[in-house]
Every structure is written in C-alpha cells, then in structure tokens.
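Hi Prof. W.,

I finally got the ZP domain-containing protein prediction working! I wasn't sure whether to trim anything, so I left the full sequence exactly as given:
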Amino acid sequence: MAFGCWVGVFVLLSVWPSVRCSDLPRGAIETACRDRYLLVTTQLSFAGNKPRFEAVDADGVHPITKQYGSECGYMFSILPLRGHAELRASYFSCHTDNQDDEVFTFSFNLITIDANGVEATYSVTATCSLPLPWSPREVSCEENYMEVSMRSDVSCLSGTTDAWTAALAKAHSSATSTWQVMFQQEGQQLIPMSFSEARELGYVFHLTRGDWCSAHPTHHVVEVVHPILLSRQRWVVMMVDWIVACSTNEGMYDGAGLVWQTPTLLSPLVSGLSGLESSKISMGVDGQLLDEPITAERGYSLDISDTTVQISIPFNAAGGYRKSFVMDNMYHEFYVVHLYYEQIFLDDCGVETRLRLHRPMNTPLLIQHLSIINQTVLEDRVFTVYLGNLYYDVDLVAVTLNGHNFTILDATKSGRVITMVPRPNSNLHAYILRLPFEDAAVHKLVKRNIYGLLQFVILPQEEPYYYLASVVAQFNDVFPPVFKGVCNERSIRFQMDHKPFDYLWEVGVGPYILNSNLAAKRGYIMQNDSKSLTLEVPLFSVGYTYKDIHLKQFYGSFEIHSRLPKTLEVKSSLAKACLFQTTEVIVCSTEGVVTVVTDVTLAIPGAEPNGTFLLDSTCRPQETDGTRVLFSFGLHSCGTRVDHQHVTYENEINVAHKSQSVNAPFSFRIIVRCVYPLSDLYKLFAYWRFEADSPGVGTILTRVPVKTLPPTTLTTTRRPLTSTTTSNTGLSPGRQMPGINPRAKYVKVFSWQMNQPKGTT
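And this is what came out:
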C-alpha cells in the first residue's frame, strides 16, 4: 500500500470507528475498520438506487467517480443483492488523514436521491487504528486498482540480475533530487518519468507524512507491474525496486460451484531473489478471513499444490448471495461470492511479503426448477406437498388446483393450508401445501390427483412467475367395495362392509348414485354408518328386472355396483337374482313382449280361467290354474291396440260368463295396458319392429257390465291400487283387496312418466 522507512516495534491497537452524521437516520449507515481499509455501507432503502460518495479534506470535496476511485484507493459499488451500497477506502487513500501510518481518519459526504429526485447530503467520519502491523512488503489487489508498500530497511541481498544492473546504471545517469519512476518491461528501454507523467499512464504515487509512498496503479488487465523509484540525494542515489503482481483470474462456474485459481508462487513479487516460498494461505469472503472449521462447515475447499492454488465454493453456500429473476416465464438465478484471499511469502532472507486480493465471482444465468416433493401419507387422506427451494426474494402468492383458483389468504379460510417454511442457516425457504383428499379441487380417480399452477412473484420488482406441477396419491392393492346379497320373501338385502379406501368409489344403481335421497324416492330401506352400508330393496321397486315368469314363481334380480366418480367406469357389481312366488304381475319388456299374470276371479267370482282369451280370440293363456291366467304376447299381435300419441298398447282379457238369474251371457273384460316413452321407440310403424331403451309401464283395469242383453253399455273401472315407487321393469299397478294378499304393484320408470297426461298409465 505504501513505501517508506520506519524503526521500532509495532503494537496491535484496538479498532475504534466513530461516525458523525447530519440528520442521519439511525442504522442507515455503518462503518467497519478492516485490516487495511475502511468499509462504509449504506442501505438502499434509505439512500435510493443511486447513492454516491465524496471524499472531504482541507482542500474541499472530491467526488469519488469510477476513474478517481481507481487512482486514489477507493472502491465503490452498489450491491442490490444485499440491498446496500459499499465503499472501501484504503488507509493510504488520497484524502485520508494519516498519523504516523498508524491512525487514519476519513471524512465523506453521502449524497442520496429519493424517488422524487430530491438530493440530500449526509456527512460521515470514521477513525481507524492499525489493527495489524505492517509486513515488510504488502500487496493489495482490489477490484479496480493495485496497491503496494515496502519497508526500505531490508538489507538482505541475494544477488543481482542483468535487469537490475541496467536499471542502476540508468539511475546514476538520470536521477534527480525529485522522485522519479521507471517501469521495467521486457524488451523495452528504461525511461525515467515524474509522478505526474506516470499519472497520465494511470499510475498514482503519494508521499505520506511518515515518508511512506503509496502507489495505486489502475488495475486493467495488467497482471504484473514493475516500477523502480529513484532519487538523488547529494552523492547518494536512492533506488527502490517495486513490483506488484495480481492474479486476474475472474473464476469460473463448473456446474456445482465457483472455482478460482492462482499460481502458488507469484515470483515477480520479489525481484532478483531466489528460494521464494509460500508460508501460509488463507481464504474468506467479504474482506474477512475465515477459520478452517467455518470454511469446512460451509463446504468451501482450499486445494494447494506446488504450482496452483484452487478455491471452490459450492453454489448457494453461506457467504454468497443469490438473485432470482424471470425470463420468458423461466425462473433464473445467479450466485455471487466476494472472495477474499491472503497469501504470505518468505524469501531466502526471511523477508515477508503479504498479498491480499478481493475478487467478486458469479455464476452465469442458471435456469432453476422448483423442488416438488410429494410427502403425502395415504392413511392421513391429505395431500402434503413440499414446494422449494426458493430464495428469500421469491414469494408464493396464488395457487390454481385443477381449475380452482385461490390466494394464500383464501386457502387459509377454506381449509387448504399453505405454510412458509424457512430453512435454517440459509436464505432459502419453501412452502408446504396441505389439501384433504375430499377437497373439491382433488380429482377423485382410482388415484387421487392435483394438477396445480403456482404463481410466484420475484421481489422487489414483483415480477410474476408461474410453475406447473402435478401430484398423484397412488393407492396400491386397493380394491373396489365388495357386496353381499340375501334373498328375502318380498325383497333383496345388500350389505357392504366399509374399508379405509371405499371413498375412492361411489355406489350406484343404474346410472344414479345411491344416496339417501334416491333411496327415499324409490322406497329403498338404506342404513349407512361407519362400519357398513345396508340396502333393502322391496320387490317391484325401481331397478328390478324379471324373467322366467310362471304362475307359481318368477325370478326378480337387482344390481348394485361401484364405479369411478370421474369416468363412471364400473369396477365391481353384484346382480342378485331371487325366486319369488307369483301373485299378480305385468311386465312390458324392452323387446315389446307383454307378460301378465292376473286373478280373473277377483273381477268375476266363479269365472273359468281356461275360458279367457285376448282381443284376438285365438290368443289363449299359456298357463292357468283355478283362479289365475298367464298371457304372454307381442305388442303387434293378438289384436293389441296402439295409441300413437302416447305410444300406449292395450289389449283385453275377456271372460265369458252366464248370469244365474237371467240365463244371458255377460262379457267381462280385464284391460292390459303398456305405456312406453316415445323417445325409446325406433322403426315402430315402418317395419313392425319394436325396440325400446327402457321397459314400459303396465296397468291392469277391469270393465264391468251395467245392463244385460245387447246392446250392452259398459263402464270402465280401475281396480283399487296400492302405489309405490318401483323400477322400470313394467310391473303393473297392484291391487289391495280385503282379505287377499297384495297383488301386482304399480311401477314407474324415471321422470318421463311424470309428464304423461292423466289417465295414460
């Protein structure tokens, strides 16, 4: 940092910075005395985005521009990642008050600009005592300049070189009483020049009060600068061989972290000496050296070989700084480390040279992807998703899950928990999203799924960033519910024992979900508790199908199934068929066949079942017994009549009977009617074919004669009916008569029948 002579013992003094300010807010500016410079920081939140400094001395104020800072020992930078501006001022900077090269007093003006463009000026002073004695030779490599100092009382000689001999001859012939400088460059002639001439080339020399001289050669791409200072004092020519060397390696990113290298021996630091050795190497960040335990904890590595020193700092290690930003909706980051390096050399005479180096290093722009970790425990029935790792300047503000949008505040109100989780000992944080499986935003398939669009903002500019993620809760060895069916005398009873994952499916009857509303509407008896689901379905309820109908018995079957809620794909089913005793039945099938069993003696006591026939008298019953008949016929046969308006098919069971009193024949007729929805019929009239998607609704009515002898006037009466909600099987309305068991029951099919005109069923 400087050049001069001294004799005596150096004492390590304490550091006592002091700050004076004019209307300076508390905590807005801080100072710290380091080994060889003063550090001044100010918060950008206070100073604005473009603060600047001025050095103040007895001659006035001196703006610290980029050029002036490199000439006079100042390094000023604005560091948005840390949120502050920083000034490093060398102890031998141009306008510093130097007391015997041990006490240094600084005075600055801080100029701030607010959002309205209004400037404010604050004065800051600080005093530092030398915290560490000067080494015989010191070299400081700053970002924008190099600084060197050397003690002149070193008398050890280890030989001379041809270059030194030539420089000595030139000094004897050219030295004056005023200090001059020659720059030794290979292949070029030595030319003495004044300090002012050297300044025009970018080299600044300052004599201190203690006869120290500090040099600040501007640091461009120069790695080695070799100045020789000379002066003639009467008969004595004083010549000082100065040489400064700094590594210009800016570091590199190797995919895992930042790597910086330098030669183990910078031999030009000691001119003409042999046996130069490196005795100690240390590293740190932000101008402070770190102990080995701390560097090991942070993951730093320092590898030293005979030729090369290599320092590696992992990406995102403590001591560095990350910055997030958005480009084309891609999340980018870069990582910056301000490396501080110190190396001590010893020559053959034991003379120490201390090298200090400041080097900012940064990664290229890196595309980052969020870490999405599915931490869901299936038994908890809650999605638990870890979203990270994010730098401190990224905030999650909104989430879209399977089309459901909500902010973080909305999530808390609706039971969707989103928690920010800081990571210890780092500037990173993450979020944990908790969402119950039963939430409306969850797709309830065999595997539960959430597909999310996450909205972040990058602070402080609040750039939006969106990220897509999908999380699935996969259930292994999970099977659909299992049903058991039991036949009762007039019903079928189903039971399903609940298992942990039954909620993945829904129970259905036909296309409808089985719930309490459906059960009440159709007359089902349902019980559902935490252990099991029980469903009792009375005979002739909606959902039954029938086959093998005979006078004595027939089969009635009912199907219940489980399916996927999203696709309605049936995964398991149970169709239970039971054998029931036949009383009175009418079935209007989808194939256009009417099957009816009725007791003719209920209309005409003493009637003969064998004597019954339909409108076409050739159509006789398939089966009879003492009271009942069984007819089965097509809708386009046996004289069946059709009402095109309502698609109603009607036929009659005629019973021949003679009155005991007048000995005249009476005609008793039982009307059989099937009604189909018009939308269910295809090619009905053109081809005499019948196709229906659902069974029709059947009724049985009785016509009773009023007078004897033709012409006979008849009135139509409907048998007493007991009505219950039943299936689309086409079973006829039943009859409830005193002293007689219930006969066929009334059956409805879905909602279309509700819209039929009165009297059509």
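The chain has five domains: 1-239, 252-366, 369-473, 483-581, 585-755. Does that look reasonable to you?

Thanks,
D.
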